Amino acid sequence: MSIASESPHFLCLQTLFENAPVSRLYGARAIVGEGSATVTFRTRPEFMHAAGGVHGSAYFRMLDDAAFFAANSREHDYLLATLQFNVQFLRPCRGGMLTATGTLTHQSGRIFFAQAELRGEHDQLLATGAGIFTRSGVPLSGEIGYR
To answer: Rounded CA gap, 74 and 124, in Å?
Structure first.
């Protein structure tokens, strides 16, 4: 899996990700490579549920983004859209830095399949996910932050 790349497409996808309002809200960062992506963010109290753990919505977001950008690394003309995404929650997390790593597993025409793992600060596996993505019809352009 190639993560660190200077490909203009990968760098534009990283900019697109990091400038999205939801990414700024989370303080999330992304590194995109050929068929792979890593997304990181440090948890904060506002991401915790009543029992003091990181809310499942943060798990979902991290896993979906890592798988999504791994898939979009192979699509150069259009932004992808998530058709389906499944999450398996394995253990709770009380905070710290979270890292999701996504991998493109298969592509067939307009359909992309990718999976992701979410790990905590001490490399413990917190959750896994798998998704199906398709071309959205939204061109990758400066209008959506792809630059």
So the answer is: 29
